[in-house]
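Thread amino acids onto this structure.
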């Protein structure tokens, strides 16, 4: 094999693991962009050291070892990402104010296609989807970094304790102890996931169709009928979050009134239905990116509207254009 062909073969073998490694690093770091940076660093380190890879473990295990070390190094700063609901109580509408916090405060959304590799086993696919839901990834952030790695490797990726011990250069007993502590911590956090099916069942599709119609028509009566009475609305980078359909619709008609006339384009994020929200350009030139909305559904109602507003970052990540013209809207 020529040097060029050998290089292409190594590149192909490493790239074949990119999606699953990104999913792993996202669960560890809570940031789509940091996860991609971590994976790129992992693959560069692996490429540079490939001649030293002796095959004593699988290529996959070797890459996970490198990725784990990269993530642990990134987590040494001690920052853990959160949702607005993890930091404060709900704000009554009368006291609502938009106070932004730094970007690295927030748990970030991520497109399913970047973190969930295709698998044939429906049960395995379901576990993977549940493990990237916003609530679960937020709960992971409460764990010390090594416990986080142990729990993801053991409970999400189904590695054996001996494999995890080898990856972390520790004992099986230490891995089992870390897993017990991690489970106890997660039991004390709200990591409950919405009950959205995959693919969406007919009732859920109709609910989302009605949501799009209500939001695009800015029909608060119709929207209220779709929201659970304890539904929440979050808006990172603002720490404000609202609970209850009255406060949510009241906010949309007051501080959020500029969203009238928006258009929603369907996507998927964190194993959940999502939408790219475009709102009217103040200059009157079509529609401009505003938010990626991640939607929670439970018991036939919308229970969460998580609106990520840092649009210069999100829309390219999700593959959406930077503007819709009036004809498209």
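Threaded sequence (329 positions):
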């Amino acid at each position: 094999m020529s040097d060029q062909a050998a290089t292409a073969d190594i590149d192909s073998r490493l790239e074949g693991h990119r999606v699953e490694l990104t999913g792993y690093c996202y669960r560890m770091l809570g940031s789509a962009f940091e996860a991609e940076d971590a994976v790129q660093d992992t693959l560069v380190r692996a490429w540079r050291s490939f001649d030293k890879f002796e095959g004593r473990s699988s290529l996959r295990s070797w890459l996970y070892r490198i990725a784990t070390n990269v993530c642990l190094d990134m987590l040494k700063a001690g920052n853990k990402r959160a949702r607005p609901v993890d930091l404060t109580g709900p704000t009554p509408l009368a006291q609502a104010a938009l106070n932004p916090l730094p970007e690295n405060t927030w748990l970030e959304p991520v497109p399913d296609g970047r973190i969930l590799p295709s698998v044939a086993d429906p049960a395995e696919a379901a576990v993977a989807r549940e493990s990237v839901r916003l609530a679960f990834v937020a709960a992971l952030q409460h764990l010390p970094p090594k416990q986080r790695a142990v729990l993801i490797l053991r409970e999400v990726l189904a590695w054996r304790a001996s494999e995890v011990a080898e990856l972390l250069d520790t004992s099986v007993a230490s891995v089992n102890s870390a897993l017990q502590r991690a489970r106890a911590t997660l039991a004390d956090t709200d990591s409950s996931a919405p009950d959205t099916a995959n693919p969406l069942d007919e009732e859920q599709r109709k609910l989302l169709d009605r949501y799009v119609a209500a939001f695009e028509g800015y029909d608060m009566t119709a929207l209220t009928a779709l929201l659970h009475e304890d539904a929440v609305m979050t808006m990172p980078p603002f720490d404000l979050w609202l609970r209850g359909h009255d406060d949510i619709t009241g906010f949309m008609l007051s501080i959020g009134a500029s969203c009238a006339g928006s258009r929603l384009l369907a996507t998927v994020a964190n194993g959940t239905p999502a939408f790219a929200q475009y709102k009217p350009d103040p200059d009157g030139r079509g529609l401009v990116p505003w938010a990626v909305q991640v939607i929670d559904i439970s018991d036939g109602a919308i229970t969460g509207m998580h609106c990520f507003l840092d649009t210069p970052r999100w829309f390219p990540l999700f593959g959406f254009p930077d503007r819709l013209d009036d004809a498209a809207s």
